[in-house]
């Protein structure tokens, strides 16, 4: 029996803490399922810059390419904000995404039972949210030509949003297939009333829609979608977005899940997938054991499901997370402002217990065997 | 005594209905204040296209340039979606914005008392929202070079996000000045960890911040701001955004005000300002007398304040709107799903009365004298 080989890139801020928590859960769930996983730790982001290795060392990229899946924490922070663009931690992340050929970024947004209190939305609006944002990850403004030029003494800066038909088709097909496995509703998010790239997106998606007659395909302008997302989230199933729009909408959608700390992502399409929590490095709470590890833990579950084809392991992790939340355990980000420690939601709801990264992870680990 | 001269461009869908409502309120309030206003109606958008005049006739632009202020409904609709980009209604709007030199788009977002029920947010989150989005309106992806090219049989589409230092400075100064008149907090929204244009925005704003030491200036990535906006809106005062980011965030912010139908905008910076409700043409309810006229009516108030310097008229309109809402009058968009007709909010709250465009306008007109 050969072990699965997973590369861990902690990165910066709270990245290393949450990645270790996720690795523990993945290892334990794999063991319970009679499977084996081996980890290699690799450098990336600001900490790699500080060690003189640049934002994404070649050795890391090679290790990733030879692995069965990559779990990354987060990169970046004010410490490196003054570096020129190409030398920043974020440039390293873009490089890794490209090296892995990860063109489809999948961001499931689901409100776990018991977290209705954690969202700024009315419970009756947020309840039942279960959508997925499919964000194109290797094109658009993120990878187009950018720079500055001097024009009669004025400084001009530019970025380019660029898409080729084939880049649209591959991620759109992925989104159609995903919709088929869900509620069969796909919505393309664009700004086709203004942007030429958006018009190409619309044409391609319209032409592919013919091949997926069982999927209901609609179109929405990004501004209007930003509103719908918090107004009637239950009406949404799969949202297909170009890179920048997907970046903005998926952070916005975080409020539907109670906290950015809850969200996982998978970047796939190439030989090996990259799995990351959606939250950033949160430098203000780094190293204090306060971070919510669930985004990273659910990312490990996605890795198990999508890269390793270990559905049993993925389900075990997801159910243990759900059970832990149902029993009232919360990291700080999930109680901000509303539910207070010790307060029960009434009528049989367990009391809220505010815990740190370590305790939350321990609680999840403890519940894994229940779902083995 | 010379009359103020206002150009009305109804445009498409519900545009004409709401512009007429707003013109009535402006005229009546002006009369009550002993002032005079004259209107000229001009063509623009899809209806102008249908009449063979193109999306923004030259005569309209000339009329606007010779007026004291322009009130526009909305343009666009599925009817014209198949036209090439440059011939679409939206292209006409961009042309008008440019012809007027309107580089600063001001979008106040305020939750009126009594509308707490209309937002999908928890009342305790939304209550007290009072922020302004300052959106750059003549640069970025909207006006940069765009097109397609063929590359080895693949179709490539592109749009360009471009900003010159002077374009940033003028709108940033405007935002700093505005913050000074408010709670003295300015937040620049960008994606400086990736985009070169964003880095130029940040440099310019950082350097201008020195001239406004009394304004607290912060920086936030657009993805993270999309989350904050619905998570802790009260913490925000003035948000400065490039064109596309401002477009997305201001629609999202609409949920804070209860409905997109509530939001007004002013596009200023040139010799004459352009005032528009933020909502679109809503083709599904056009011509049925159901549209919420308040976005347009509050836009007329902004016109009075900013272009005509008629503070008394502006205040009269705004207070009449607030009073009408306080007494329970609501258009359909403000009751969707929650408060039901006839239901009172309890404890002295008046019963909700669902009305159409005409009745809402009549109620506001009726209350103007109370604030004269
Ligand atoms: C750190 C940054 C480059 C990244 C992105 O925008 O892709 C992050 O915001 C994300 O969404 O994963
Ligand atoms: C119709 C469209 C061009 C316009 C824009 O994006 O500027 C609208 O969405 C707005 O926000 O005023």
Describe this structure in words.
By secondary structure, chain A is α/β, with parallel strands linked by helices. The first copy, chain A, folds into two domains: 1-110 and 263-372, 3-Layer(aba) Sandwich (Isopropylmalate Dehydrogenase); 120-257, Isopropylmalate Dehydrogenase, CATH 3.40.718.10. Helices cover 37% and strands 21% of the residues of chain A. Chain A has helices at 15-32, 46-50, 58-65, 89-99, 123-126, 165-180, 196-209, 222-231, 243-253, 294-306, 311-326, 357-367, and strands at 4-11, 37-41, 69-74, 104-110, 130-136, 146-151, 154-164, 185-190, 216-221, 238-241, 264-268, 274-277, 329-330, 353-354. A ten-stranded mixed sheet of chain A has the order 2-1-3-12-11-4-5-10-8-9, sandwiched between helices. In chain A, strand 1, helix 1 and strand 2 form a beta-alpha-beta unit. In chain A, helix 6 (165-180) crosses helix 7 (196-209) and helix 11 packs across helix 12 (357-367). Chain A is globular, with a radius of gyration of 21 Å. The mean pLDDT of chain A is 95. At the A-B interface, strand 6, strand 7, helix 7, helix 8 and helix 9 of A face strand 6, strand 7, helix 7, helix 8 and helix 9 of B. The structure holds 3-isopropylmalic acid (2 copies). One 3-isopropylmalic acid sits between chains B (76, 90, 93, 247) and A (193-194, 223).
